[in-house]
Design brief:
alpha/beta, 15 helices
């Protein structure tokens, strides 16, 4: 009678060696020693590095084909869970045993005989393996959800960040930070396409996390649309507030998304489209300023809905640069932005230190009051003070505690009191400069309307009032003629 022909099958779930209890090499070595001890005839060795959670393993499929063709009739594996962790693959093994095409299964760590009792125990082993992988999946998902609730990134760090093995969080990759900021800043101007930004990234030397190739178009788009860079975590279809350090501001990110939105929107800029229609009114009669094209040139003029108006036409190539000039006056270029941001950072650190010292003193006082309350209770229980004295002293200490807790809460709000609005102002000024140097006329008009009011055209010149605090910035930053309007608000002409 011909001896049973065995195939040795070794599998691990991941390419990462440190995540496996036994590597493929260790399995093969011990299985061969086991086969020698038991006198088993091994005709081939199959190895595979793939999870058995779902059907579809290529090497396992070859193993089943060899058994069904009658080439072999035995399998040697380290444990049943190396063969199957899902009901389909486990069912195939049991079915081949029922059909007598598979006669023997041998495991160094599991007893099996091809009997009804043996197949029953094998089914239990396969069921336990499936339960283990299903339960492990649920535990992993629960851990991921918990990390997201804490504001921690639960997977491999996104481009521009590094996984910190000590804190189990992500930290900014300082080498890539300035290039990522430039990537967002340049795209926010509306002057560049995704392909342009991909080419810029190549020029700057930005490569993938593994460092073996340049960014693709899809990866560049994914970066520019990922909110992780301004502080939000988008994972599994949900968004959470992250506790990692942002690389850009939300304003810059929103500006980039507006560029995407405009480019994905159906093109409606017909021949009669003009970017700054609806921005200003005629200073003479108060009618809206409209536009038209004559002999290949754009002209802005009073709509004259109230009759004749002496306000003259203004050419588009004269009027439109005035908007960019208005934005440039209050915008921060690269040099100014870095200086102001550095000053803001120093101020925040100094203020935070003072507030932290104050909070520490308040917490020490609260601890002292807690001790006093404990001692007071002990004195009352031991009979050293009367009930009336205990009640009076307790009320005094509780009032002191409430007052201190109120001071602590107030000091916690002081950390972001004026500093956060100042940061938003700095980022907005940066955005103004980027828009002024870009070609996105619609974004220029929208931003200008947010920071100004009372727009009018007088003698071919755009005039408007800067709203506070932009008025102070424009007055300080520019040496230009201005006259005061209502509420002492400087009114600028261009």
């Amino acid at each position: 009678m011909m001896p049973t022909q065995y195939i040795l099958y070794a599998r691990k779930s991941s390419d990462s060696e440190e995540r496996q209890v036994r590597s493929i090499e260790a399995q093969i070595r011990e299985l061969k020693e086991f086969a020698a001890r038991e006198g088993l005839h091994v005709v081939d060795v199959f190895t595979e590095s793939k999870t058995a959670k779902v059907p579809g393993r290529e090497v396992f499929g070859q193993l089943i084909s060899r058994i069904e063709s009658g080439e072999v009739d035995g399998v040697l594996a380290w444990h049943p869970d190396r063969l199957a962790r899902n009901s389909v693959d486990g069912g195939q093994i049991v079915y081949l045993l029922d059909c007598q095409k598979l006669k023997e299964l041998k495991f160094p760590t599991f007893w099996f005989e091809n009997t009804p009792q043996g197949k029953f125990m094998l089914n239990i082993a396969f069921g336990q393996s499936k339960y283990y992988v299903d339960n492990l999946s649920e535990n992993v998902k629960r851990g991921i959800r918990q990390k997201l609730r804490r504001g921690e990134w639960p997977a491999f760090a996104p481009f521009g960040y590094i996984n910190d093995s000590k804190t189990k969080t992500i930290v900014v990759d300082e080498e890539r930070r300035p290039f990522l900021r430039r990537l967002f800043d340049d795209f926010a101007t509306g002057k560049y396409s995704i392909a342009d930004m991909r080419n810029k990234a190549r020029e700057w030397g930005l490569v993938t996390a593994k460092g073996n190739r340049s960014l693709s178009l899809t990866e560049t788009r994914r970066i520019l649309q990922n909110p992780v860079y301004y502080g939000l975590l988008r994972y599994g279809g949900e968004t959470h507030v992250g506790k990692h350090e942002p690389i850009i501001s939300k304003e810059i990110f929103d500006a980039c998304q507006q560029v995407f939105e405009r480019r994905c929107r159906p093109h409606r800029h017909r021949k009669g489209w003009f970017p700054f229609v609806g921005l200003a009114k005629c200073s003479f009669c108060g009618c809206s300023i409209t536009a038209e094209r004559q002999k290949g040139r754009d002209y802005y003029r009073c709509s004259k809905k109230r009759g004749k108006c002496p306000e003259p036409f203004v050419r588009g190539d004269v009027f439109e640069p005035q908007v960019a000039t208005a934005l440039r006056r209050i915008g921060f270029n690269d040099e100014v932005y870095e200086k102001v941001l550095t000053a803001w950072t120093h101020e925040r650190e100094g203020s935070s230190q003072l507030i932290e010292n104050n909070q520490r003193q308040i917490k020490e006082k609260l601890s002292e009051i807690a001790l006093k309350l404990d001692r007071l209770l002990d004195l009352n229980l031991s009979g050293h003070i009367s009930a009336d004295e205990y009640a009076a002293k307790k009320e005094l200490f509780l009032n002191q505690r409430l007052q201190l807790e109120g001071e602590l809460k107030k000091s916690q709000g002081e950390v972001t009191g004026w500093l956060e609005p100042a940061k938003e102002f700095i980022e907005a000024a940066r955005k103004a400069y980027l828009l002024a140097t870009g070609d996105d006329k619609t974004a220029q008009k929208d931003f200008l309307k947010k920071i100004g009011s009372n727009f009018s055209v007088s003698q071919r010149t755009l005039e408007f009032d800067y709203d506070f605090p932009w008025s102070a910035l424009a007055r300080r930053a520019q040496n230009e003629k201005w006259r005061r309007g209502r509420d002492s608000n400087p009114r600028y002409s261009y």
